[in-house]
Write a structure and sequence with these properties.
33% helix, 9 helices, Rossmann fold, 6-stranded mixed beta sheet, alpha/beta, binds magnesium ion, globular, binds adenosine-5'-diphosphate
């Protein structure tokens, strides 16, 4: 649900980022500006190397822009904050800790109340169908289950803003479809603001309220597309249902054409 407030959840203003290595300087992002409203689900698509992960890392506070500014809830981002949850392509679960201890990791690092965090972690794991696996090790879980555990870990600290960097791309197609349905349901029930980065156009269209297309490096915002499925009625379709809606192929074609995928590197 979109909420209006004094500030957007995320305000990215004229952000430029240069990476410096001993060999070269890479202009990864050039003059990127983007607002995300509270409760909005925005997907960013672009070809590999266009700066999608760089943009999320900047919003997370792990990296500082070379020029421009980023605000989360009206406050300049200077360092990582517990109000922002960040989930990567690789689940980054620690192999030697049980699932519940992995989910509690963030809460531990932030020094949150242990009993409360544990209660919430157990609730989340049960809700995501992992109740029986709380005491298992990550190696005993399938890829989809591990990603759900990673999501539980991210949500355990109750962030208001979620940054998802290709969270499904390591999974097989079926698991990916099922998981994107589950995750969309979880996130809309929790009313979170989400920025999802993906190179999968179908995933972006089926999950997001708005799709942002980035150009090749240096990454710039090329266009944006508000997504709506009036043929489905007033209710929002699940990602799986969205893929079957009459509007879906048109969005897909438009965004595909903008991605310049036919251009050779
Ligand atoms: P994407 O996530 O869209 O694939 P990235 O944000 O990872 O793109 O990378 C954008 C560009 O910046 C690429 O050319 C990449 O090689 C370069 N890059 C990314 N991280 C670093 C880094 N830590 N040091 C130097 N160059 C980097
Ligand atoms: Mg990336």
């Amino acid at each position: 649900m979109l909420q209006t407030g004094p500030f957007p959840a995320v305000a990215i203003r004229d952000v430029t980022l240069n990476y410096f290595t001993p060999e070269r300087e890479t202009l990864a992002l050039s003059n990127v500006s983007l607002d995300v409203a509270k409760g909005e689900f925005v997907a960013i698509v672009g070809s590999s190397g266009c700066g999608k992960s760089t943009l999320l890392t900047l919003v997370s506070g792990l990296l500082t822009p070379s020029r421009g500014s980023i605000q989360v809830d009206g406050i300049e981002v200077k360092a990582p904050s517990p109000r922002v949850g960040y989930m990567f392509q690789k689940d980054t679960l620690l192999d030697w800790r049980s699932i519940i201890d992995n989910v509690l990791l963030g809460a531990e690092l932030l020094g949150l109340d242990r009993r409360r965090a544990r209660q919430r972690a157990e609730e989340l794991l049960k809700r995501y169908g992992l109740g029986e696996f709380m005491h298992s090790l990550p190696s005993q879980l399938s890829g989809g289950m591990r990603q759900r555990a990673a999501l539980a870990r991210t949500l355990c600290c109750e962030p208001e803003l979620l940054l998802l960097d290709e969270p499904f791309s390591a999974l097989d197609y079926q698991t990916r479809l099922a998981l994107s349905d589950e995750i969309a349901a979880i996130l809309s029930a929790e009313g979170k603001t989400v920025v999802l980065v993906t190179h999968d156009i179908g995933e972006a269209i089926s999950m997001a309220d708005r799709v942002i297309v980035m150009s090749r490096r240096p990454g710039r915002i090329k266009s944006e597309h508000k997504i709506a499925f009036p043929s489905f009625g007033a209710k929002r379709p699940t990602p799986f249902e969205a893929r079957k809606c009459a509007e879906f192929p048109q969005y897909f074609q438009t965004i595909w054409d903008e991605l310049d995928l036919h251009e050779v590197h």
